[in-house]
Amino acid sequence: MKTIKKNAFVAAVTGVLFLCVLCSCNSAEKNGNGSVNDSVKAAEKQHLATAYIFMTPDCPLCQGYAATLNALVDSFAGKNIELIGIIPGDAYKPEEIRSFKTNYKLRFDVISDPGFVYTKRFDANVTPEVFVTDASGTVLYSGRVDDWMYETGKKRLQPTEHNLRDVLTAITNGEKRTFVNTQALGCIIERE
Predict the structure, then answer these.
(1) Alpha helices in the chain (DSSP H)
(2) Closest to 50 measured CA to CA, from 136, 162, 166, 163
(3) Model confidence over 137-180: pLDDT tens digits?
(4) SS3 for 20?
(5) Which of 2, 8, 83, 122 has its CA 20 to 30 Å from the CA of residue 27?
(6) Is there a contact between 37 and 69 (Cβ–Cβ < 8 Å)?
(7) pLDDT tens digits, 82-119
(8) Is pTM, for the whole model, over 0.90?
């Protein structure tokens, strides 16, 4: 009985910590010592998979992918999949990030990465660029959301390959396989 109460307590504390980290602080590195970053990594363990989407509010592709990403949130609701938007660097103020999330009706958490902690962790180079990790933090897939943009400056009317959706579907179906990484095209991430 004590074990059940202890597990319930740990789950409740983890849930509260996760909500505090992702919903209120809006920063992947709040005080420079990595404490918030460590907390987000701990929250990562609570999901079957986490998709980190590197985004910037003024990138036309990121804006254009809002509906696609929201559809993924809907498709994977209740399937233990988490989508998290990451804004690299400190070029955007918290109100700009909130406005981006509100204007494009993003239904997943969007956090800033002022110290490039996540940008460096995944070696992200463009927005949008996706990295899917399992519960241990191992990267299972990296690359594009889909093939809507097939060459710099050239877009299809409709994508023909749905890379992120297919990876998340395979994971939720319990498929154990190696995913083929793709080349993301988009707005270049300007680092320090």
Answers:
(1) 2-19, 35-44, 60-64, 66-75, 94-103, 117-122, 163-172
(2) 136
(3) 999 999 999 999 888 888 999 999 999 999 999 999 999 888 99
(4) helix
(5) 8
(6) no
(7) 999 999 999 999 999 999 999 999 999 999 999 999 99
(8) no
